[in-house]
Structures are given as structure tokens and as C-alpha cells.
Sequence to fold (112 residues):
Amino acid sequence: MTLITDFCDKWAVSLTTQQLHISVYSRFPLMDLALQHTMLCGALSQKFPALLSFRLTYEVEWERSAVDEAWRVSVPTWHREEVVALFKTGDPCVVDYDGHLQRLSTQRDLSN
Fold:
């Protein structure tokens, strides 16, 4: 993703930044969770090695596990219905990662 690559090219390495929220307003075109994970494990982790939380859009948040250092994705409860509805349409802009959206789409109660 050019936006993240450009951002990382211009930003100095930060050993202390733990949260990074880049508010890109796009209303869902950036729902490629596999691509977001690739960016996290690549350029962003190199520039921000202490990063624990990352959000590119308001609909998705990533947190690094303290146990195994793996990145875990979550969709805040207030966005779950609209994200799941979009996922169920088969929109090619929505790409799941690690089956997270698939699991959400089979839940009866999206509030927890």
C-alpha cells in the first residue's frame, strides 16, 4: 500500500511509539485485512518496533499479543454489523485474515 510505504519512508525510526492510529477515511475500501497484516509485519514493524496497537481505519484494530508477539485483528462492536454485512456481500475489497471476518459472520450476537 503506497500510503503506508510513503509514510514509513518519511518517518524516522521510533523505538518508543506503542500506538499508531492513521485515520484514513474511505468507508471500507481498505478492508483487506491480509494486506494490513503484511504492512504491520513489514514496514511498520521496522519503523516502530515497540508498536502494540495499530489502526488504519476506524473499523479495524490490530493489537500485538504480549504472549507470542503475533498481531491479532479485531472489529469494534459498534462497526461489526456493517463490516459483517459487507463481508457477506463478497465484495472483493474485503479480504479476511486468519478467518476473523468469517467467524464474526457466523456469530448470532455481534455485540460481544
In short: The radius of gyration is 14 Å.
